[in-house]
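Could you help me review a protein record that somebody else here produced? Here is the record exactly as it was handed to me:
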Amino acid sequence: MEDAGTVGNAPGTGSDAGGTIVDASGDGTFSRNANEKCGQSSERPSPPSLNSVGKFERKTVESFEETPLVVAIMTYLGYGILILFGHFREFLRKCRLESVPVAVENLREGWVPLYQSFESFYTRNLYRRVRDCWNRPICSVPGAKFDLMERKTDDHGWTFYFTGKKLRVLNMGSYNYLGFAENNGPCANAAEKALSQYGLGVCSSRHEIGNIKLNSDVERLVAQFIGVESVITFGMGFATNSTNIPALVGKGSLILSDELNHASIILGARLSRAVIRVFKHNDMNDLEHKLREAVSGGQPRTKRPWKKILIIVEGVYSMEGSIVRLHDVIRLKKKYKAYLYLDEAHSIGALGPHGRGAVDYWDCDPQDVDVMMGTFTKSFGAAGGYIGGKKRLIDYLRLRSHSACYATSMPAPVSQQILSSLSIIMGLDGTKEGKCRIAQLAWNCRYFRRRLHEMGFIVYGNIDSPVVPLLLFCPAKVSAFSHECLERGIATVVVGFPATSIIEARARFCLSASHTKQMLDEALNAINEIGDRLMIKFSRMEVPGVSENDEDFCARYKCLSTLNTKSQ
């Protein structure tokens, strides 16, 4: 697949014999050094054994159970019935026999339609009927439990009105992995103090008068935490990917992107004007095939070597719950002399015994990752994102990144929230609170997933992932599951087509260190009851032989003995 965008790279200067991503050609592209093109190296280190990860063996399980044929047929049939009735209702509307309000685009002669016909049809006849399952407003801190504002509709989801009631529900849908989304405690107190001193915002970019001490303090602490030379921060996580990838690659470069990468990565890759080729999710054989093909075949038509080959992967994939096989990606990256861009948005803070993400989880060397990206919106309870790497790379981005040059600086309360939460995670506050939160999250992940497997649900992803997708399949059961959960005091996220493939609609649970065992048992009992009622226990796979009681797991998270006692 080849995509062209509209944003080019600004020219740079210099060369780098040390292997960092810097501009060596003067055309806004990067090469490993001034004399070496990507893939043209005689040195190829021998690949490590796939069973050996880092310094020790990793006992982990990742499953993507195949959809049963009968379930797939029934799911397609369900969508077919919905579409059939949708066309029937469209006919009734044209005949003015149905009074349900709809939004219709009034086309003017010679003007191109703003919306695709099927997209509008899908929204009117499928999505809007169950729109109450999404965009539910909350009115409290999104901790382990929060207050949900009750709302109702009298016009089939066209409008909603609030009843004035608040529902206290268990939060199983927020990315509050380490439980730092709080309105009291040391983080909130420090953020409030920063607000009083600096105000809500600086109203300027960091290149002008928008740089404050807290911004620089965050960058230094994050660099120390993830183990890189330097870090640059941005005020928006999505923009961290979408505006910085075009600064790293351009025409004559190749991006190898995992097929399940986030929309921000996809947008950034398209804007870069580099050639994009997609490899199968977490499939190292397919990735190596495309790397070998790229190195041997070169660019289309000219057959010249690629200026750069950039592999882009995520630490934890937020819709599948899978964890990147980082050790294998690094092996291939070294073998074919490519660059590696790792998005740790969902893994930083949530994976590894120290909370340092996929690098920590697989016990890899941070220096083997050329570009380390992450966000502060999940584990840190804040906002924004960062990119870490060699100092020359970060210095280049400070000058060439659109977000660094034109975006407003990160507000002081947000910066202080990051500093406070990260200090706790690193143990700089003199306590073991950070390690205990990391261990609690790890224990919750294994316990919750194991119980779901034992109940007979099809659950996607890695046993250690805090994102837990439970497959629902049929469209009618998506809304039914959401409603049944809410009736039992559980707030969760349900996802269907087009956010997933048409037969893989799911509920997505997000676990948190703030969840106690009692809370998880409450949710599991309700899910088990709902599963029996909706008949969605389709798993035929044996329960994975990995649990929260494994010796190697307990050895990695030494706070578990205390935490398990507390959570009984």
Q: What stands out?
A: The longest strand covers residues 161-171.
